[in-house]
Amino acid sequence: MAERDVVRLGGGQGFWGDDLDAPVRMVEGGPLDYLMLDYLAEVTMSILRKLRNRDPSAGYARDFVTLMERIWPTCVERSVRVIANAGGINPRGCADALEDVGREVGVAGKARIGLVRGDDLIPHLEELLDAGHDMAHLETGAPLSSIVDRVRSANAYLGAGPVVEALRQGADVVVTGRVADPALAAAPLIHEHDWAMDDHDRMAAAVLAGHVVECGAQSTGGNCMAEWWSIPRLDIAGFPVVEVEPSGAFTVTKHPGSGGRVDRASVSEQIVYEIGDPRRVITPDVVADFTTIRLTDQGGDRVRLEGIRGAPPTDSYKVSVAYAAGWTAAGTLLYTWPDALQKARAADVVLRRRFDRLGLRLDAVHTELVGWNAGHGPLAGDPPTDAPEVQLRVAVRSTHRASVERFSREMAPLVLTGPPSVTGYAGGRARVQEIMAYWPALIPKKAVDPHVRVEVRLV
Predict the structure, then answer these.
(1) What is the pTM of this model?
(2) The pairing of beta strand 364-370 with beta strand 389-398
C-alpha cells in the first residue's frame, strides 16, 4: 500500500472503566487515523469469564459497543479506524453486538468488522497439557496441571500479526481478545508503513508507540508525579496521540484545547511503566531496548521519540491464567476523635479474639488502619498522636467459604460491643467474593498459532 508521511494514532482507553467520553473527544477533537482502545487487564479476564459462565452471550466489554453507537458514524465520516481488545473472553459475541449496532446507527454497507480469535486456550487446555506444554508458573516453577481443575481463564498474549491481517482485509473496526497491549497500536503502524515483521528496529518503534498510548492519559499528565498540581484541566484530559513517521520516529502530543500536559516527564513516566528490564522489553513481536530511546521535548505539548533498537522476538507467548484460590471478604468501620487510632486497634483485637473463639479457618487476616498505615504499611512510622479519624479495614482469605461468610457477620457487632465513636457501618455486611489468583506462564508460539483465526465481515 502507499506509505503515509505520518500516521496519527490515538489511545482513547487505558482500562475497562476509564473515562467514557475520552474516545468521543479523541474522534471529534482533531485529526486521527486510528483509535486504539485497551480494555483488558489480568483481573479483567477472570471477571469476564465469570460473567460468561452466568450468561453465554456475555464475556466482553459491553461499554465498547455502547461507545461505538456514539462514535461510529463520525468514525466513518472522518475515516477513523478503531482497534480494541474489548472482545475479552467472547470476541465473537462482541462482534455480533457491534454488527447489530452498526445497522442501527446507519453504517451498514459502509464499515467492516475484523475479528481476531485464538488467544483463549481454555478449549485446548487439555490437549496442550497432554502434548507436554506444562505452562509452569514463571516464579514457582509449578506445572499448571497442579491447579488445572480450578482454572477459570487462560489466554495467550497474541502479537500484532493477526490485527495487521484484519486491517489488510479491509477491517474498519478490529475486535480482539487478549492481544499484547502495545500490539493493538503497533498493528496499524506496521500496516500503514508496510514495515516488515523482521525489521526489528521499526518493530521496536511500533511497540514503543503502543506502550506510550496504551494507558490513556497516563502519558498526558494523568497519574503524573512531576509537578502534578500544575497539570491543567484533567477533567477534560487530552488522551495521547502519536504521529508516527516511516522511519519509526514519532511525536507524542494531544488534541489542541484539551486538558493535561505532554512533556518529557509525563512521557518518561509512561515509558518506564511496567516494563521490567529496560534493556530487554519482551513483547510477542520484538525484544525492545528502551535504553536506546532518544527523547526530545519540543514544547507546546509535543515530545519526539526516536532511535530505539530492537532484537528478534522470543519463540514463546506469555499466558495469563486465572484460577479459583478460595474466598475473601473485607469490612470497614470508621473511628473518630478522641483516641481514634487506639479505638481502631482495640476493635481489631476484639475481632481477632472472636475469630479464635469461633474457630474460624482463615488462611490470612489483614488489618489496615486507613489514615495511618494503609498506604505504606510498616513504613508509615510512628502513629499520629491524635488523628481525627481512622478507618479500620479488615480483610480475610480462606479456602473455607463458611469461615469467610461468618467473618462477614462479625464486623457489625463491633458497633455496640466494641470501642465507642464508630460510624460507617450503614453499607451492610462485607461481601464474600471468590478469589481469582494469577498464574503467569509461557507457551511456544507454534502451539498457539494454529488456533488463531482472522475474519472480516461487512456490516
Answers:
(1) 0.94
(2) antiparallel
